[in-house]
Amino acid sequence: MLVLTIYALTFAMGFPANVFTFLTLLIKIRCHRPHSHLTAANLLLLHLTTADLLLLLFLPFKMAEAAAKMLWPFPTVLCPIANFCFYSSIYLSTLFMAALSVERYFGVVFPHCYNWRRRLLRTMAASAVLWVMALSHCSIIFVAEYHREFGVNGPEADGKGGLGVNGTKTWESDIYRISSPNTNLNNSSFKSSACTTPNTPHIPTTTLWTSQNPSETQRHRGYHCYDDFSQTQLQFVLPLCLELFLILFLIPSAITMFCYIHLIHALLTQPHIPLQKKYRTVGLAVVTMVNFGVCFGPYNISHVVGFVQQRSPEWRPYALLLTTLSAAIDPFIFYCSSSAVRRAVSGMVGAIRGTMCGFWGWCWRRQC
Q1: Where is the G-protein coupled receptors family 1 profile domain (predicted)?
Q2: Measured between alpha carbons, how far is 179 from 169 in angstroms, rounded to an integer?
Q3: Alpha helix (H) ranges present in 110-250?
């Protein structure tokens, strides 16, 4: 229930803010004149907003999964597609936040090295590379699901039933039950057909598991989407998850920390820069590092823990829950980074204030 509540609050807070920012940046970029100063930061912010919207658009799938007690309630074909888009948005966010820090660093520390047109072209090329990096690495989800199907259809190759649980699995259409090794099974749970002739091989048949205690009888529709990995899946997934930690999280976070530390130092040593701009830069650095440390850090650390323990940590779903909070925190990055977003927010706040003042003035005149 807590997971579902946090997902719902994140969606309610993040979706309107990201849609507003996306439309503001899109209008800013599309309506610029040929000789106007189209900044590379706006392009990077547009990509970052797109990554947040991608996460928020597929967040209802996670909400439905949490409501179904972490069982996938949709057709199985949607499982790898939804998770591919969801996890890709996480690493797109880390990559583009790092790219934004690099752009800010060069813009302040080396302002005269490149003209804005050359920087814009390099930003476009770098954005395409970052999209390819995130999407190609997260495509392991499709391969992992293939290994899941292989483990289900070929339990001999898996050795543990194909679902990563050392127990008994029974299928009846789309209904199945997995029993742990500690589950007490009575002998009437399984029935074997006797052989009529001595030359006929003995073929056991399995019926649906039934317990004498009705409360223990569970029928789950669906399956654990991208979870409960088998040994075959773990041998493939865990090294690649460690690569995700190193390439798509650790390196971007180190680059971001380096850029913002030197950027703040450069701003503090230049007295001609307005104090308000310094405050915005410090706020941008703080929000970005909170994103890396609080939102994305625990989930990516779970990759390292899983690789060391050779199994998925039990707390990984809660770490994944923190990653969705970045969609509600990123609007502060947009506000600190883009003057177009600040003007749009100021205009919206002024319009709301004028409407409220007019409403209260009308109510005051009615009372008088």
Answers
A1: 17-334
A2: 7
A3: 116-138, 140-153, 155-158, 231-243
CATH superfamily of the domain spanning 2-148+230-346: Rhodopsin 7-helix transmembrane proteins (1.20.1070.10)
pLDDT tens sequence across 314-365: 888 889 999 999 999 999 999 888 888 888 888 888 888 778 776 666 666 6
Q: Give, as one character, the DSSP assignment of residue 168.
A: E
| Contact predicate 304/35, CB 8 Å | no
**CA atoms of 33 and 344, how far apart (whole Å):** 19
Looking at the DSSP bridge assignments, the partners of residue 204 are 192
Three-state DSSP string of 188-205 = HHCEECCCCCCCCCCCEE
Cα–chain center distance at 112: 37
Is residue 82 within 8 A of residue 37, CB to CB? The reply is no
Which amino acid makes up residue 333?
I
Q: How far apart are CA 357 and CA 281, in angstroms?
A: 33
CA 101 from centre of chain? 20
Tokens of 266: 């450069």
User: DSSP alpha helices (H): ranges in the chain?
Assistant: 2-30, 40-67, 78-109, 116-138, 140-153, 155-158, 231-243, 251-268, 275-290, 297-309, 316-323, 326-337, 339-367
How many Å apart are CA 11 and CA 14, to the nearest integer?
5
Looking at beta carbons, which pairs linking 251-256 to residues 24 or more positions away fall under 8 Å? 251/98, 252/94, 252/95, 252/97, 252/98, 252/292, 253/94, 253/98, 253/292, 253/296, 253/297, 255/98, 255/101, 255/102, 256/97, 256/98, 256/101, 256/288, 256/289, 256/292
* pLDDT tier at 79, thresholds 50, 70, 90: confident
Coil/strand/helix, residue 167: coil
Question: pLDDT tens for residues 122-167?
Answer: 889 999 999 999 999 998 888 777 665 554 433 333 433 333 333 3
Q: How far apart are the first and last CA of the chain?
A: 49
Query: What is the DSSP secondary structure assignment for residue 224, as one 8-state letter?
Result: -
Encoded tokens for 246 = 């190193």
The domain locations on the chain are 2-148+230-346, 164-195+204-222
| Nearest-angstrom CA–CA distance, 340 and 31 | 12
Burial state string for 78-92 with b = 16 or more CB within 10 A and e = fewer than 16: ebbebbbbbbbbbbb
CA distance 229 to 240: 14
